[in-house]
Specification:
Order of helices and strands: HEHEHHEHHEHHHHEHH
Distance between the termini: 51 Å
Largest sheet: 5 strands, parallel
Radius of gyration: 21 Å
Number of strands: 5
Strand order of the largest sheet: 2-3-1-4-5
C-alpha cells in the first residue's frame, strides 16, 4: 500500500546513507564506511549529536501519533559486522521512544525450539502489532547471512531435503521478500539498516571493548573467529541484500566509522518513515466527540 507522504528516508546520494535500486548489485567493497567531509553535519561530532537529539525527539512525536491511530506497525532491523554499532544506534537513536509502543528482539543463536520451526518462525511470532514499533538487533537475515558463512548450522536444524540444496540461499531470500511484502500489505512496514564499518575501525572498537571493564564482559572469542572470515561475511551480506532489496523494503546502508553521524542518520530515516504514515492525530468520530464533551462537562461540574 502506498504511503500517504513521500518517504523522504530513501534519498539516493545522501552522504550519510545509501540506498540502491531493486535489482542493483550491492557490493560492500565499493561502499564507503565513512561519509565524505562534505557529508558531515556542521560542527563535526557536536553537530551530529545535536542532529541525533532532534531526530530522536521527532521519533517520539511520530510514535505517539502512530500509537494513537493504531493503523501501521513498523519493524526496524539492524544488521552489520560485529562492533558495527548496532547496540549503540538502538540505544541512542531510539532513546526517547515510549516503551509501551515498542517490542524488542535480539536474534542470537537459535534455541532448540526455534531450530525445529521454519527459519522465519521466530521472527513472525515477535512481529509488532499495528500501532507498535518492533526493534530487531540482528534479525531473520542471519539465516541467509551468518548461516551462509557457516552452512554447517543447517545440519543442526534437521531440515528436510527440500529445505536444503545448492539454491537454499536464493530460495530463502525469495521467501523473505514474500514475507516482507505480506507484512507491508497488512500494515506492518519493514525498515532495514546495515551499519557499514571498516575492518580497521572494527579492530579499534574490539580493542576498546576488551580494555574497558564496562564492555569487556561483552567480548566473545567468536568476534575474533568471525573477523578472520571478514571477506566471506561481507560477500554474504552483499549477496543477501542484493536479493532482498525491494521497492517495499529497501536496504539503508549507513557508513558507520563515524558513530555519531551514523546514529543521527538512523534516527532521521526512522523519523521520516514514521512521519510518512499520518498527517497528525486522528480526528474523533461523532460518538467519540460526544463522549469527550460529556466527560468534560462532568469533570467541570465536579470542581471543588
Amino acid at each position: 500500500m502506498a504511503l500517504r507522504k513521500q518517504d523522504r528516508g530513501q534519498r539516493d546520494g545522501a552522504a550519510d546513507r545509501m540506498t540502491f535500486g531493486p535489482g542493483e548489485t550491492i557490493d560492500l567493497g565499493t561502499v564507503p564506511t565513512a561519509p565524505p567531509p562534505r557529508g558531515l553535519p556542521p560542527g563535526g561530532e557536536r553537530g551530529a549529536r545535536e542532529r541525533l537529539d532532534r531526530g530522536a525527539k521527532a521519533l517520539k512525536k511520530y510514535q505517539d501519533v502512530q500509537m494513537a491511530h493504531g493503523t501501521y506497525g513498523l519493524v526496524v532491523l539492524f544488521e552489520g559486522m560485529d562492533a558495527s554499532g548496532k547496540d549503540e544506534a538502538i540505544a541512542d537513536a531510539l532513546a526517547h521512544l515510549d516503551p509501551r509502543g515498542c517490542e524488542f528482539k535480539h536474534f542470537k543463536t537459535m534455541t532448540a525450539k526455534e531450530a525445529k520451526h521454519d527459519f522465519l518462525w521466530r521472527a513472525a511470532v515477535t512481529m509488532p502489532a499495528r500501532g507498535q514499533i518492533g526493534i530487531f538487533n540482528r534479525s531473520y537475515y542471519e539465516q541467509v547471512m551468518g548461516e551462509r558463512v557457516h552452512p554447517e548450522r543447517l545440519d543442526e536444524q534437521d531440515l528436510p531435503p527440500e529445505a536444503k540444496g545448492d539454491d537454499v540461499w536464493e530460495r530463502r531470500c525469495a521467501q523473505i521478500n514474500d514475507f516482507e511484502r505480506y507484512l507491508t500489505e497488512n500494515g506492518i512496514h519493514v525498515l532495514k539498516f546495515f551499519l557499514h564499518v571498516s575492518k580497521e575501525e572494527q579492530r579499534q572498537r574490539l580493542l576498546e571493548r576488551i580494555a574497558a571493564p564496562e564492555t569487556a564482559w561483552q567480548f566473545s572469542k567468536a568476534d575474533i573467529k568471525n573477523r578472520a572470515l571478514w571477506d566471506e561475511y561481507r560477500a554474504a551480506f552483499g549477496q543477501a541484500m542484493t536479493l532482498t532489496n525491494t521497492a517495499l523494503a529497501p536496504w539503508h546502508v549507513i557508513p558507520a566509522d563515524r558513530p555519531w553521524t551514523a546514529r543521527a542518520a538512523v534516527a532521521a530515516v526512522i523519523a521520516e518513515r514514521l512521519g510518512s504514515f499520518h498527517d497528525g492525530y486522528p480526528e474523533p468520530s461523532e460518538d467519540e466527540a460526544k463522549e469527550l464533551e460529556e466527560a468534560r462537562e462532568a469533570l467541570e461540574s465536579d470542581a471543588l
